[in-house]
Specification:
The chain is an alpha+beta fold. It has helices at residues 9-12, 29-49, 63-73, 77-83, 86-97, 189-195, 239-254; strands at residues 6-7, 20-23, 104-114, 139-145, 155-162, 168-173, 181-186, 200-201, 209-213, 216-221, 229-238. A hairpin with a 7-residue loop joins strand 6 and strand 7 (181-186). It binds 2-oxoglutaric acid.
């Protein structure tokens, strides 16, 4: 597995982009604590709904109540506030558009809860582009852990180059306590892996941001620690591309 470098925000904006960019301290300990308070409020609400006391960890809830935490937390305003944080949007804009254009949109906001020892929610090799086929194809993924990431917590591995010329398959997966989920996986990941460069296994601190291209193949690594691996995922897309294609369509429609 290849190594990656962690960079400060001010250095990252001058980086040409080898495919994976780990930016130090993108969100602060206070912002993480704020988000985890929101998670706890929702956990307490779900616990009470099944007759359990407040103050429990999501891990202590039965799967269907835990699933409720997962679903509600993904619609919490705290997620939207972080995704719109100016420093983050500016970085996404630089990675996508190469400059400070303000022409980005964010979609696919998600807070993942990876349970200890639970391999069932792990995602195999995939590209996020395949989940957002109707959106602009120029974009970046931001994967942002709320806990320190090391060998034990697992995390993700990313192939540090875009792979536009691979086939993917659509599957439906069933995970305990969750609704069936549609996933997209790369059909022959070994071929891509054999062509190199080797995947980068991410290790970083809570609050660091891991950026990579929408077309980069990546997968989950198992969580073998005793704690939940909480991570955020936001996807940023080039809005200028969306505007350009709308203009093209309008020109076609109206001659
Ligand atoms: O965090 C993980 O385990 C994988 C997340 C991921 O690959 C994704 O959301 O696209």
């Amino acid at each position: 597995m290849a190594q990656h470098a962690r960079r400060l925000v001010r250095e990252a904006v001058t980086f040409a982009g080898a495919g994976v960019e780990v930016v130090e301290g993108l969100i602060s300990p206070d912002e993480i604590a704020g988000l985890m308070r929101a998670v706890q409020d929702i956990t307490d609400m779900q616990a009470r709904s099944v007759g359990l006391p407040a103050g429990l960890d999501a891990l202590d809830l039965p799967p269907h109540a835990r699933s409720g935490v997962y679903d509600m937390v993904n619609s919490h305003p705290a997620l939207f506030r972080l995704a719109g944080k100016p420093e983050i949007v500016e970085l996404a804009d630089r990675f996508i558009n190469g400059g400070r254009t303000g022409q980005v949109i964010v979609k696919g906001l998600q807070l993942r809860m990876d349970l200890p020892g639970n391999q069932s929610e792990l995602l195999g090799w995939h590209r996020d582009r395949d989940y957002f086929q109707s959106l602009p194809q120029n974009g970046v993924v931001l994967w942002l852990p709320l806990v320190d990431i090391d060998e034990r917590t697992g995390g993700i591995s990313v192939v540090p180059r875009p792979v536009p010329d691979v086939e993917f398959v659509e599957l439906v997966k069933h995970w305990p306590g969750r609704k069936p989920m549609r996933v997209f996986e790369v059909k022959e990941p070994d071929r891509v892996l054999a062509e190199g460069p080797p995947p980068v296994r991410v290790s970083c601190r809570a609050g660091d941001g891991v950026f990579f291209n929408l077309w980069n193949m990546h997968r989950s690594e198992p969580n073998s620690s005793e704690r939940v691996r909480w991570t955020l995922q936001f996807r940023y897309f080039s809005a200028s591309e969306a505007v350009a294609s709308r203009l093209d369509r309008a020109a076609l429609e109206h001659g």
